[in-house]
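User: Predict structure, ligand S-adenosylmethionine.
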Amino acid sequence: MKPKLLDLFCGAGGAGMGFSRAGFEVVGVDIKPQPRYPFEFHQADALEYLAEHYQEFDVIHASPPCQRYSRITKVTGNPENHPDLLQPSVDALKKTGKPYIVENVPGAPMENYLMLCGTMFGLHVFRHRLFMCNPQIIMSPMSCNHDDRSSNGGKNGDQKHPEAKYITVTSAVSPISKAKKAMGIDWMNRAELVEAIPPAYTEWLGGQMIACLTKHAPDAGESARFTSRFHAESLSTSQALSTLTPRW
Ligand SMILES: C[S@@+](CC[C@H](N)C(=O)[O-])C[C@H]1O[C@@H](n2cnc3c(N)ncnc32)[C@H](O)[C@@H]1O
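Assistant: Predicted complex:
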């Protein structure tokens, strides 16, 4: 049986797709309808759903809205107009005792994060995202590779530096076909794509999460020894591992 992952603030499923490719059964939750979400979907408030259902899942991922911390909001809007769902999400996830991954943008108040960029996966997109993971045993595949400039959408739908090898995916991005290809996403509309993370990121993280959690839980005895070894080093990691069900 596949391990089950809860995809909170799922949008149209950029993160969910990567976790599915890594080997998880994925269930998504979003406050808005998501007709293009590729997996089981529930329309609900993420933290209310988490409180009611966390015990049904092996790993929980959360992508709370990033507008409060994004550079664009600082330039064109007021961060105070966007609710802070990041800290409440982190607090709620820690309370569950489950393994978790939280994603957000550079500038967000995250602790002990790993930064991923499209160029680490051979994608032609500059898209830095921060991931806070528990257990904290996850590495990035390589450094960024910004060996050419990135094109940006202009005010009138035109594109600055259209010849550039890379593209920056914001709401003005153009052409959308280049942006979809660069993100590795072909099922979303423009608004969904702009909010998404490339599935390659969570395929990488999910694969490592599965490897590190299954490797040490083939039977109850070994699982217990592993858990007690980690208990000495990290209470939160120990708590996370002890919640794993033996079905994977
Ligand atoms: C950054 S997007 C998620 C993108 C997604 N992870 C992906 O890779 O495609 C954040 C999502 O949070 C949703 N959202 C905002 N407030 C929410 C809440 N209270 N409960 C659930 N979802 C919420 C928004 O509708 C939006 O789809």
